[in-house]
Task: inverse folding
């Protein structure tokens, strides 16, 4: 079966500095996969290479068997991959509903359409309302996005990320800055909205990682040192050493925002 996402000998240099050094990773369709590692390991750079914000120096990035390395982000998005960011990326002056309606328009075929009245796009309204229900923000539908709590804004961004129907979802630190109770709610939300989809997430909170991931890859100094099940990663001595001797058992219960 063709992998949903496959990285082969992927590298990225900035000048003479090697950031990503020959990453190989294959993620099957429908898997929830976490990418973890110490600060500066290259996790966000890897996400940038996958989503088109940066072009690889060498190597390959394939989405459902099709090479996407070096393509523009909007092209990759239209091929079925959507990404959220560490910093909340929403339209603050629009309502929650308007944010979601904007996110569904292209996938419904409206593209650069200047002659349709938004209020009459019943399919866009229906899809936006479906996502509203999925992310639990129905009561905040008409609220300006800037007035949402931080956790609600993150939920909205996840809603925007999935609204276009992408089958491969990249979430970059989705619970960063959240309290433990907010993180628990976010985990449940992510689990619900990614049913049947492929999820790849960068996350520092080990409680979130071990609660969501089917498999985990550990990135250290631009190289994947281990890919395995959560239990195997928890007991991997190389992985524990990469976290400066910190016990993954402790991190998974305490969290590490």
Result:
């Amino acid at each position: 079966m063709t992998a949903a996402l496959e990285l082969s000998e992927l590298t990225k240099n900035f000048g003479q500095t090697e950031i990503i050094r020959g990453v190989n990773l294959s993620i099957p369709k429908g898997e929830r996969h976490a990418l973890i590692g110490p600060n500066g390991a290259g996790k966000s750079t890897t996400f940038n290479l996958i989503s088109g914000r940066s072009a690889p120096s060498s190597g390959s990035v394939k989405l459902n068997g099709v090479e996407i390395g070096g393509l523009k982000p909007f092209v990759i998005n239209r091929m079925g991959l959507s990404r959220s960011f560490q910093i909340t990326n929403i339209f603050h002056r629009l309502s929650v509903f308007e944010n979601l309606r904007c996110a569904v328009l292209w996938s419904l075929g409206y593209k650069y359409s200047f002659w349709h009245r938004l209020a009459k796009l019943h399919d866009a309204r229906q899809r936006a309302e479906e996502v509203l229900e999925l992310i639990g923000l129905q009561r905040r539908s008409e609220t300006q996005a800037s007035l949402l709590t931080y956790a609600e804004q993150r939920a909205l961004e996840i809603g925007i990320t999935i609204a276009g129907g992408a089958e491969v979802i990249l979430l970059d630190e989705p619970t960063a800055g959240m309290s433990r109770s907010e993180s628990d709610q976010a985990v449940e939300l992510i689990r619900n909205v990614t049913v049947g989809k492929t999820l790849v997430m960068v996350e520092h909170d080990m409680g979130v990682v071990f609660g969501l991931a089917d498999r985990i890859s550990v990135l250290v100094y631009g190289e994947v040192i281990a890919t395995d099940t959560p239990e195997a990663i928890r007991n991997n001595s190389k992985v524990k050493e990469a976290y400066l001797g910190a016990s993954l058992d402790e991190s998974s219960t305490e969290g590490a925002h």
Observations:
- The longest strand covers residues 17-27.
- The radius of gyration is 19 Å.
